[in-house]
Input
Amino acid sequence: MLTADGSAEGARVTKRPTIADIAQRAGLSKGAVSYALNGQPGVSESTRRRVLELATEMGWRPNSAARALSGARTGTLGLVLPRPATLLGVEPFFMKLIAGIENALAARSTALLLQVAPDHDAEAAAYRRWWAERRVDGIFLVDLRVEDGRIRVVEELGLPAVVIGGPGHHGRLPSVWTDDAAAMVMVVEYLAALGHRHIARVAGLPGLLHTELRGRAFGDVAATLGLEWSGTVTTDYSADQGAQATRRLLSASPAPQSSGPTPRAATRPTAILYDNDVMAVAGTSVAHEMGVDVPGDLSIMAWDDSVLCEIIHPPLTALSRDIMAYGAHAAERLLELLDGNAVTDFQDDMPRLVIRGSTARPRSP
Amino acid sequence: MLTADGSAEGARVTKRPTIADIAQRAGLSKGAVSYALNGQPGVSESTRRRVLELATEMGWRPNSAARALSGARTGTLGLVLPRPATLLGVEPFFMKLIAGIENALAARSTALLLQVAPDHDAEAAAYRRWWAERRVDGIFLVDLRVEDGRIRVVEELGLPAVVIGGPGHHGRLPSVWTDDAAAMVMVVEYLAALGHRHIARVAGLPGLLHTELRGRAFGDVAATLGLEWSGTVTTDYSADQGAQATRRLLSASPAPQSSGPTPRAATRPTAILYDNDVMAVAGTSVAHEMGVDVPGDLSIMAWDDSVLCEIIHPPLTALSRDIMAYGAHAAERLLELLDGNAVTDFQDDMPRLVIRGSTARPRSP
DNA sequence: CTGAAAGCGCTTACAG
DNA sequence: CTGAAAGCGCTTACAG
Output
């Protein structure tokens, strides 16, 4: 039997000190205390020191509501997770991103407000509400699309924001991005160097910008390298669709020894690149079931590394990014923006190729 | 080149309406408007309707800071993730929990504040800060320990809280819990019914309450059923330690045909139960590497189901809980508590046994 | 049923 | 360098 103030059992909750209390103890006005506390000019060094000591001693902390109301910041940034709730928890990506953002924010005692939104409408509604209620100072925008209505909404609201993704398609909002096209070239060149001439790609959601950028780069590099066959299947990132795509790809007959022109759909790839770790793992399982040896008959690669890739057998070759750092970089830039500084786009590090046991020379190229 | 208010390019951000604006348009006092908006008695139905229509038309939303400052709620609940940032993103548990909490909160337009804290000290500091700054109305407390200093901190602060975990060891705070002991009995009885007489457990962090409760139940049911051998290895939930524990367990020689008393450490289990999905998957990989057939030579089970369990080969038999519902139940109770209602402990559904391909009769029991 | 007023705890011009 | 005062946008007793 507890009531909300926790006082049911007689717990005495001491009133939290305010600047008025500090002012009284210090024999100053509230204004002077405020200046001292905020490092503003207008008080002597000795006064400032005394006020800061008193504040610490009395356990004073700024009331965030009062601060926000008097025009300063709310000290809160917002992040909407653009996934139906049921799909979250599958990909480690978002949790790592959150951890990275958090890390960068902690030093500035800024909080992170989180919301799960199943679609873009719900997401736009969240931004409108947050901004109207003055709940956040700014937001992070993830999962950039080729045609992305959110950009306009955020710009119209005047809501400070940093886009995580790109390059391009993010209006006048600054973005933090990685060069997915260059990474794709690196991956396909690696597979081609091993001798693969038939490479498939199991891609994520079609509308997403990075899906498109990777897709274009995949087509280009396949052409440049003169691969005999390349093909893409799009999915929703789920393990199910990853498995299904794999089954379809592996059901095709292997390439004939004479490498003449064959119908695209009827050629079986010797290597598959997946757009996330979950699908790559699911694909590996499907290969096992179908008696397709990895990496003997099929090389498998995952875009975005995680423990998942390490713990299965064989461990998966993957494209590894420091996602925590990615989130931290975005957070630093949003804080800069809120400080009134100009923020330009920032290109994060290239993903690294982590070679493990799931890729090898094809048995029959 | 953008400044924080987004106005650099001349974007006109219209001033958000306040209750004063509504009062003026309606020819009422601010007080009357406030009563109308909040469903308080003191205004006629027709006035209330007119005010609500005006508010909608003008796009009014309550300024959360003003509301919080004048003594009402902040409309924000807090959750600290008690893991070093690098370990997050591995277990789907927290993301699902967050999604569940979010779902329940959305209907009440309550926000969720998130922080990552590497240890209990950092966590306690977060609670103190949040409460001192009046950032949250209440918090969720997860990863309950047998000796848990956080309980006292939260009680002393008078910070409304709901504990996710139990039963017991949560002081006077209400808790939402599942019966891990009963679930453990169910699991071991299932394995024993298959014919397993040598069962090992790869447990999570030693100090956690549910680790201890499961451990005690494991010992009890092993004794009750008269298993020939049972043993536990504790870990930190990581894939690495799960793999290592598995290697150690499988390195022991199989039980001799004569079932006389054998030294405990030297007996190889025919079934292993893991405290999370990640370790179960890692363990399955180790078995493959060591040429131990799953489920022929070794049955494997995971506590807490996830896609991970479904996508590997063989798919893992698991103990499945609806973690989103778990989070939602906790959120509902915290909201109740904040409404001033008495909240009692709530026992959530028993986990379900989901039987897949990783468990079978032992080849040599 | 309605209005006028005080107050929440800060910040920030404005005087001295 | 310091003090007195207004104001942010709400809520809530207190009079009428």
Notes: Chain B has a mean pLDDT of 89. Residues 209-225 of chain B form the longest helix (17 residues). The longest strand of chain B covers residues 76-81. Chain B touches chain A through 88 residues (CB under 8 Å).
